[in-house]
Design a protein that fits this description.
This protein has 8 helices and 5 strands. The protein has helices at 3-23, 28-43, 55-70, 87-96, 104-110, 127-139, 154-157, 169-191, and strands at residues 47-51, 79-82, 116-121, 142-147, 160-163. The longest helix is centred in the last third of the chain and has 23 residues, at 169-191. The model has no long low-confidence stretch (mean pLDDT 97).
Length: 194
């Protein structure tokens, strides 16, 4: 086997091992509480808002799809909106009031007390994420986050933080999608007979 192939094999083994060890940190009681939070939000006709930057923005859009359709293809799902999805809004707000406010201003305009904010962040320190959580807290929304690294400033501000202690942005982003898919399957089970 060539040296390159050995290096790639070792990288893959190390990555999968690290991801597996990171996912073992998942608090399933907290997961069950979040499912209850989302079902309660749905009962009150609330909306789930998701946000994140970069890969986490893509994950927010991906999970918005899963929570809109994957939970129940017949339409008995969640009202959900990914705040990074509209480039016109993002560029307007970024240009006119600053990138730090691209999510918080949308919440100020759209969100209500019975809504839920789910932030996806590797570091937990992006100012637009912190501002979104602060705005959601002012409104009285429930705030949840999936965070990596040390959880950053966001961790202490959230009602329900999911913190994966991993110093790797790619694995941190992996946890967002994997936890989102577990949530989707749990909600599918809850709603399939309604």
């Amino acid at each position: 086997m060539s040296e390159r192939r050995n290096n790639i094999t070792q990288l893959a083994i190390t990555y999968v091992s690290s991801l597996s060890n990171t996912l073992a940190q998942l608090n399933t009681d907290a997961l069950a509480l979040f499912v209850d939070t989302l079902l309660n939000m749905r009962e009150k006709r609330g909306t789930l808002y998701l946000c994140g930057n970069g890969g986490s923005a893509a994950n927010a859009i991906h999970l918005a799809n899963d929570f809109t359709f994957g939970i129940n293809p017949q339409g008995n799902a969640l009202k959900v909106e990914a705040l990074p999805a509209n480039s016109s809004i993002l560029t307007c707000l970024g240009n006119d009031i600053g990138y730090d406010n691209i999510f918080s201003h949308q919440l100020k305009v759209k969100a209500e007390q019975h809504d839920v904010l789910l932030v996806l962040s590797g570091s937990g320190n992006s100012q637009n994420i912190i501002n979104a959580i602060s705005q959601a807290n002012k409104i009285g929304m429930t705030t949840v986050g999936i965070l990596g690294f040390d959880g950053g400033k966001a961790k202490a501000l959230l009602d329900q933080p999911f913190h994966f202690d991993i110093q790797d942005m790619q694995i941190s982003e992996d946890t967002q999608v994997i936890l989102g898919h577990i949530l989707m399957k749990a909600l599918y089970q809850e709603l399939k007979n309604e």
